[in-house]
């Protein structure tokens, strides 16, 4: 299949910090479609917690960052299929049993999910910041208090923008990253979502959504 476990070769992992990163290497000549699923399976309850996974790719390595929403046992399953093989159904290629002893809590003590990831995100992208899927107002009156820095790696993009409502903030290319600052102060209580979008064809004006964040209410 061209996918090799690097960080965790044992199918049982005990996580004691509330967050876990599982790292794989993929063959550079065998591009894969990859997705993962996280199922909480403690006390005869099965709950899909896949929104707690952030899939990252960099230098032919794939990172699955997991934030545990509950203590207990989880099934973590990875599915993959070469791009050269047809079919919508991806077979299971790795299965882990995870035991979480701690819960990952973010701002205000809430369990924090990652931004929603769309298909193109999983084709080689890496998120540096912001990692939290829900963006909160700062509560400060400072002029720059609600300015959020964005930094992402999207290797084949020709342009990248952050979109809130009808407003677009275009990010700048610096080395292998797209970076920029987005002021969210005008949108609290008005807009509910923020999208990170990319254009892949220099002659085409269409942008595709890669990540989607939620904007918290004041």
From TrEMBL:
The lineage of its organism: Eukaryota, Metazoa, Spiralia, Lophotrochozoa, Platyhelminthes. Residues 1-104 form the KY-like immunoglobulin-like domain. This is KY-like immunoglobulin-like domain-containing protein. PANTHER family: HILLARIN.
